[in-house]
Amino acid sequence: MGKMNFEKDERGDKKRNEDEQPSRVIVGREEFELCGGRIEELLRFGEFCGRGLVDFGPSFGHRQGLTQARGHSFLGLLPHLHTKSPHKNMFCALSGVVPQEPVVSSKSGHLFEKRLVLSKLEQSGNKCPITGQDLTPADLVAIQVASGSGVPPRMASSSGNAATAGASVPSMLGAFRDEWDAVVLESHTLRSTLLDTRQQLSVALYEKDAARRVIATLLKEREELKRMIVDGTDSNGAAPMDIDSSSSSSSSSSSSSSSSASSGPVTLQRLEEQNKALCQGRATRTKPTGWVDNDTMKTFVEVASRSPHKSSAKGILAVKVHPNANEALVLSGGVDHQGKILSATTYKVQGTLSGHKGSVNCVDFTLNGNGINCAPITASEDGTVKIWESSIKKSMKCVSTLSGHQGGINALSLHASVPLCLTASQADGTWRTWDYGVGTDLMRCSGGASGTTGVQYAELHPDGLLVVGGVNECDGQSNGVVLWDLRQQDTQKCTVLGYSTGKMTSLSFSVNGYNAVSGTDGGAVHIWDLRKAGNGVNAANVANFNVDGCCHAVKYDVAGKYVAACSNSGVDVFAHKKWNGPLVSLSTHSGAVKCVDFVGASTSMVTGSMDRTMKFWSSK
């Protein structure tokens, strides 16, 4: 082993001191003695590059073999110094710090602190903590590093004095190391768990987004199918059609809102088939149960009052209760050119129908046999009929418009089982039937036989083949009440039922099909029995009574048990065949009552008035 001298330091001072205690320095694979006071320079360089850069050993005191290093400068020896500090990336894959006892996985090449990886392998069942592959302690290769000759401190014995065993510096360092190991292992576990959780969250968010897109697509398809069922069109929809009043057919901007429209267009043969079925069903009709009796009807009082329409144009002109009692909805039409849908239980507005250019005079629901997906239908002073989407929402969309009248429409009635509706206009003196499934104007009538002119009002019979209405003149007399048969549409021949004391303003049929009630602008209310038609003038007029001022509307309840008549001062409710006086008079409106309808089994009623209020009535 030889002695190595440095001829000159970095400042150019020549020094030589062979008597100083030599120290060992490792250069490459050889050990050399270092003397001449240059150890301070090497230490300073080690502090500059990183602590513990150069591995020093004890002094040997030998001077052999120094010739191998003789003549080398200090800087010339630096590339051959064996360092204790590893490469900048030589960190433990678990703790992220320089390992004191490094080992390398022979399978993955990862560097670990030996005690940490052994603890992790024991916990995971010999699985690599980084890759998850099988890894045993035998697969770990120790890395040999140079170390000093210092002896590690002796740990305090656990069998020593309890008061001093934990107070020694070595024992504290050992405790700190064990705690550090536990923290490092837990930190690695948490990082792994965090990574897995992030991946699971990413997958969950992706699946949620995909589910939302699927749901949105399904909802869109459902709405499209509903529209197809309601309109009776294919997936491409129907081409918009404008109604020409001078042509024999009228078209709608889209198809109708009744599911029965899918059965095809309305024909006379189809109406006759439905007439037989309806007549047979009426013949087998049983007496309704659970209906309100007369004593309960006498106790009806106002239970709620709402003003759903605009205050700028006061007046509610029409109301209609949804045919399905479970829906608990009421449709109204107002002077403000809008329709409103209200809940019959909470009395809150559920939807608004905007699109007419005149007051909404008539409202109803299209029928499909089961009361489900019934679409609102409205008729207006602008001469049009609009069918709306069946789904109730804040802003309702019009799906079909029928036009052809030359004046405002004041009457609207629907067939019970086919997409047929009848409208009447006192302004142009005609009534028309429409196939709103395909948007055609089936029949027009301006009075019928010679001498019958000027339709005032008309209503479609429940059986679907007859029409009853009032005309301005019939056989030389004014205000005639006549009956038409749709099967005689070529001749439009009519049968005179009698004559009223004023212009007809409203008409309603009983469920039995042969009783009807009509009101006039003079306040007279007439009861008609269609079975006596043709037996003589006014033979079918079986009863009469009067209300205050103008009779704006009359209505039979669903069971044909009660009749309500609207007047300038309120609503009078009569029991059928007991016309000598009303059971109850409802008169809390401050304006003329324009419309009325019964709810369910006549357990409640709803009225609309020119005072802009809609009132709900029920027993005390």
Distance between the termini: 121 Å
Give the neighbour order of strands across the main sheet.
9-10-11-12-16
Largest sheet: 5 strands, mixed
Helical run tally = 7
C-alpha-based Rg, rounded = 50 Å
Average residue pLDDT: 77
* Coarse morphology: elongated
**Percentage of β-strand residues:** 25-35%
How many β-strand stretches? 36
Oligomer: single chain
Helical content (DSSP H or I, runs of 4+): 10-25%
Uncertain ranges: 1-88, 153-166, 233-262
Estimated structural class: alpha+beta
Report a brief summary of the structure.
The chain is an alpha+beta fold.
Strand and helix map with partners:
Layout: E1 3-4, E2 23-27, E3 30-34, H1 39-49, E4 56-57, H2 74-77, E5 102-105, E6 111-113, H3 114-124, E7 140-142, H4 162-165, H5 169-231, H6 268-283, H7 294-297, E8 300-306, E9 316-321, E10 329-334, E11 338-343, E12 349-354, E13 360-365, E14 376-380, E15 384-388, E16 395-396, E17 398-403, E18 411-414, E19 420-425, E20 430-435, E21 440-445, E22 453-460, E23 466-474, E24 477-485, E25 494-499, E26 504-509, E27 515-520, E28 524-529, E29 541-546, E30 553-556, E31 562-566, E32 571-575, E33 584-586, E34 593-599, E35 604-609, E36 614-619
Parallel strand pairs: 1-3, 12-16
Antiparallel strand pairs: 2-3, 2-4, 5-6, 5-7, 8-36, 9-10, 10-11, 11-12, 13-14, 14-15, 15-17, 18-19, 19-20, 20-21, 22-23, 23-24, 24-25, 26-27, 27-28, 28-29, 30-31, 31-32, 32-33, 34-35, 35-36
